[in-house]
Design brief:
Blueprint lengths: L1 H15 L8 E8 L5 E8 L5 E9 L4 E7 L6 E6 L5 E8 L11 E8 L9 E2 L8 E6 L10 E10 L3 E13 L5 E4 L8 E4 L4 E5 L4 E8 L18 E8 L7 E7 H43 L1
Antiparallel strand pairs: 1-2, 2-3, 3-4, 5-6, 6-7, 7-8, 9-10, 10-11, 11-12, 11-13, 14-15, 15-16, 16-17
InterPro entries: GSAP_fam (IPR026172)
Organism: Plutella xylostella (Diamondback moth)
Protein name: (diamondback moth) hypothetical protein
């Protein structure tokens, strides 16, 4: 019921911006940005009953839904992100093989789409299709530090278990004959930098612009009394965090070996068990005292 109410609300927003009847359906949440805005997709139909996929951004502060792009077909977009100026969109299309196809694995296609006014915006495939799950995410921050006429944006591309790359996209501001400015994108995507090579888990904190991931590394030597000395050849799962800044490169802000996490978890678990045991023991003693008190009262009476 709650999902239906949200869909009705979003349809109402679209209807308020159009003179024609809006029949949007199949709403999906496919992304979230630093300011709390959410990326959504929905399906509409033409007069010829052709299904089209729309992608837009919903801003909770202003309760507005802005359409970013309308595709000429119904695509299976599973995840997306847009830069701060809403001029570049990255998204992932998941293609599920048909029954008569030899390929049995689903494929993930990452694309970059310029969102420039009065331009023929065509999607650009960022990487080759992958059978491993792919996700994309724009990094927010100041993008015009080096020149007022150049806007440099960055986005992350996650390939499950394999690597995390960072791409840079540059937009140039051109002066028009009428004195106005016009942003342009040449469609060139430079080679990415690999910031994480092999990982088992990753999560993006869009509010704080922090990338958390678990990977394997050689354990740090511990000299604490009673601590088990690990072999240098042994590798341990480690939780690391990369902080992304507006004007500076990213930096590793922390890492924590899994053995430490596990030890702390066991400590807290034992502590909770001890508290629960004491609580249970106290409750039993109180019940016993109450029972004895009731028995004494019955004898006295």
């Amino acid at each position: 019921m709650a999902i239906q109410n949200i869909a009705v609300k979003l349809c109402g927003i679209l209807q308020s911006e159009s003179d024609e009847e809006v029949t949007a359906r199949e709403w999906r949440l496919i992304g979230q940005e630093q300011d709390g805005s959410q990326l959504l997709t929905w399906v509409t139909s033409t007069h010829n009953n052709q299904e089209l996929l729309n992608i837009g951004v919903y801003t909770n502060k202003t309760k507005t839904l802005s359409t970013l792009h309308r595709f000429n077909e119904k695509l299976n977009i599973i995840q997306a992100s847009v830069n701060a100026s809403h001029s570049l969109l990255v998204y992932v299309v998941k293609e599920i093989p048909k029954e008569d196809e030899l390929t049995k694995e689903a494929l993930y296609y990452p694309y970059l789409l310029p969102l420039l006014l009065d331009k023929e915006n065509k999607p650009i495939q960022v990487q080759d299709a992958s059978s491993k799950q792919v996700m994309v995410q724009y990094v927010y921050g100041k993008s015009h530090k080096y020149s007022p006429g150049v806007r440099n944006d960055r986005f992350l591309l996650f390939k499950h278990l394999e690597c995390i790359n960072i791409y840079r996209t540059t937009m140039i501001c051109n002066d028009c004959d009428d004195g106005t400015e016009e942003w342009g994108f040449d469609g060139v995507i430079p080679e990415p930098d690999t910031i994480v090579r092999v990982f088992s888990w990753a999560q993006w904190d869009c509010v704080n612009q922090v990338l958390y991931y678990i990977h394997y590394r050689q354990p740090t030597q511990s000299f604490a009394e009673g601590e088990e000395v690990k072999s240098p050849s042994e590798i341990m799962p480690t939780l690391s965090a990369l902080q992304f800044h507006a004007d500076l490169p990213h930096e590793t802000v922390s890492f924590l070996e899994y053995s430490i996490i596990r030890r702390e978890w066991y400590k807290r678990r034992r502590s909770r068990l001890t508290v629960n045991q004491l609580k249970g023991k106290s409750e039993k003693e109180n019940k016993k005292k109450n029972k004895q008190s009731n028995s004494s009262s019955s004898l006295t009476s």
